[in-house]
Structure formats: C-alpha cells, structure tokens
C-alpha cells in the first residue's frame, strides 16, 4: 500500500511538473519538451486556455497589435493556434479511452498480490474450520453468527 501511494504521488508530481503549470513549455530544456506532450493535463490546459482567451470578450487590442487574450496566452507559453482546441479535445478523449481500457485489462488479467477475500461463503468457512477441529466448531460458528435466533422461543 505504501508503494502504491508513493507511485501515485510521483505520477501526480510528474503530471503537474511537466504539464505547463509549474514549468512553462518554452522554459523547458530541449531534451525535455517531449514530456510536455505526454501529460494529459497539458491538453486540458491548452483546450481550456484557448477556449477562454480566444473568446470575443478578450479581443480588445493592445498597443502591441495583439489582443489581451493573445498576450495572456503568450505570457504563459500557450500561444497555439485556435485549432489546437480540437486537438486537445480529441487527445483528452483518447487518454480517457486508453486509461479505461488499461484499467479494465489490469482488473481482468492481473491477480491480487495476496489471498485476501472480502467475502467468504458460509460453506467455505465451515470447511476451513472443519479441517481445524471437529464438526462442533462449525456449529459454534453457525450458532454465533445469528445470536438473536439462538436465544430460544419468545413468549407473548
């Protein structure tokens, strides 16, 4: 359990670090820019930012002949063309399909690391306890399972 929590924390650190939130894409070293495109959060950030800052309410022109929205996108290193919105949307759907298929395959074909079971049938329990001792132990389990039923007949 500790290993899975540690691996999950490193995965989240990886996603946030290289998605453009912490390190902007133009500020990344050349050999590390490909990691920017592996992060699913990158595509969400690009899609949301382009959708917001290329909207008509951000079209006021500045002295630099750019709009306020374009300047904001440039300052964050997200100055992509408008069609990247659709690329981001398609990529997010692709990541969703890949992660869901991977999850289903992992649940189908990987075995649990231990032999822990959440539910043990009563027959299996009596069989396990029957191999330990006599049949009385199975009766005791059955008797103690429902204490209200073992009280006896009620009057009235």
Overall 3D shape: elongated
Question: Helix/strand/pairing class, anyone?
Answer: mainly alpha
Radius of gyration: 30 Å
Distance between the termini: 54 Å
What string gives the helices and strands in order? HHHHHHH
Question: Can you count the beta strands?
Answer: 0
Total number of distinct structural domains = 2
Helix content: 55-70%
The major beta sheet can be summarized as: none
Mean pLDDT comes to 82
pLDDT < 50 runs, ≥5 residues: none
| Range of strand content | under 5%
The total of helices stands at 7
Keywords:
156 residues; mainly alpha; 2 domains; 7 helices; elongated; ABC-type transporter activity; membrane; ABC2_TM
Overall description:
This protein has 156 residues and is mostly helical. It contains seven helices and no strands. Helix 3 runs antiparallel to helix 4 (68-75), helix 3 (40-53) runs antiparallel to helix 5 (84-109) and helix 6 (122-132) packs across helix 7. The longest helix is centred in the middle third of the chain and has 26 residues, at 84-109. The radius of gyration is 30 Å and the shape is elongated.
What secondary-structure arrangement, pairings included, does this model have?
Blueprint: H1 2-18, H2 33-36, H3 40-53, H4 68-75, H5 84-109, H6 122-132, H7 135-145
Summarize the structure.
The chain has helices at 2-18, 33-36, 40-53, 68-75, 84-109, 122-132, 135-145.
